[in-house]
C-alpha cells in the first residue's frame, strides 16, 4: 500500500509538472485566444447596435420625408430626401433618390422627374432591381411626354421573358406604341400580358380592356 501511495504521489507530481509545462508553453496563447473571442464578441455586439441605430435613424427620416410629401410640402420633402440621400444609411439613400423623383413629378415637373429617375437608373451604388424600377418609372412618365423611342430606350430590355418586371415593361411599351399609332405592335404587347397566366391580374385586365378598346375603335383587326 505504501508503494501504491508513493506511486500515486509521483504520478500526481508528474501530472502537475506536465500541466505546468503545458501552461508555460501554451498559456499565453490560450489567454490571447480567450481575449480575442471576448473582444470579437464585444465588437460584433457594438457594431450590430451601431448599424441598427443608424438604420433606425435613417428610417425615421425617410418616414418624416414621406409625411411631408403626403401633406403637399414638396419643397420641404425634397430637402429632407436630399439630406437623406447624402447622409442616410443602408438602402435609404437609394430609396430617398427614387422618392425625390416621384415628388418632382407630384410638383408637375415631369422633365425633372425623368432626369432624376434616369440618374438613379445609372447609379451602380443602387441595387439592380431599384435601378430597373427607376427605368420603368421614367418610361411611364414618357408615355405621356415623350416618344415611343424614349420609352423603348428605357424598358425594352426589361420586357424579356426572363425579367421579373416584363409585364409592366410590356404595358408601358404597348401604351407608347398605341399612342404613336403603332397599333399592331401595341396589340402584340397587350396580348402577351393578356395571355400570360402569371401576369398580375390587374395588368391582364388592363391589357384585355385595351384590346377591346382597340377593336371597338376599329384600329385592330380580329384574329
TrEMBL record:
Residues 20-159 form the Ancillary SecYEG translocon subunit/Cell division coordinator CpoB TPR domain. Keywords: Cell membrane, Chaperone, Membrane, Transmembrane, Transmembrane helix. It is found in: Cell membrane. It is a single-pass type II membrane protein. The chain crosses the membrane at residues 26-47. Gene3D superfamilies: Tetratricopeptide repeat domain. Pfam families: TPR_21. PANTHER family: ANCILLARY SECYEG TRANSLOCON SUBUNIT, UPF0070 PROTEIN YFGM. Belongs to the YfgM family. This is Ancillary SecYEG translocon subunit.
Amino acid at each position: 500500500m505504501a508503494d501504491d501511495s508513493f506511486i500515486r504521489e509521483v504520478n500526481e507530481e508528474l501530472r502537475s509538472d506536465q500541466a505546468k509545462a503545458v501552461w508555460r508553453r501554451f498559456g499565453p496563447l490560450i489567454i490571447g485566444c480567450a481575449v480575442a473571442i471576448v473582444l470579437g464578441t464585444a465588437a460584433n455586439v457594438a457594431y450590430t447596435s451601431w448599424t441598427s441605430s443608424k438604420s433606425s435613424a435613417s428610417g425615421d427620416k425617410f418616414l418624416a420625408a414621406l409625411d411631408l410629401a403626403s401633406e403637399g410640402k414638396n419643397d420641404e420633402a425634397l430637402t429632407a430626401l436630399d439630406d437623406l440621400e447624402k447622409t442616410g444609411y443602408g438602402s435609404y439613400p437609394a430609396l430617398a433618390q427614387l422618392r425625390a423623383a416621384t415628388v418632382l413629378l407630384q410638383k408637375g415637373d415631369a422633365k425633372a422627374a425623368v432626369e432624376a429617375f434616369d440618374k438613379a437608373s445609372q447609379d451602380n451604388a443602387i441595387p439592380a432591381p431599384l435601378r430597373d424600377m427607376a427605368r420603368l418609372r421614367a418610361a411611364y412618365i414618357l408615355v405621356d411626354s415623350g416618344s415611343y423611342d424614349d420609352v423603348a430606350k428605357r424598358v425594352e430590355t426589361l420586357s424579356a421573358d426572363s425579367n421579373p418586371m416584363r409585364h409592366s415593361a410590356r404595358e408601358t411599351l404597348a401604351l407608347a406604341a398605341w399612342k404613336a399609332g403603332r397599333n399592331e405592335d401595341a396589340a402584340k404587347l397587350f396580348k402577351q400580358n393578356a395571355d400570360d397566366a402569371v401576369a398580375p391580374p390587374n395588368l391582364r385586365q388592363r391589357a384585355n380592356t385595351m384590346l377591346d378598346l382597340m377593336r371597338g375603335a376599329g384600329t385592330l383587326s380580329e384574329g
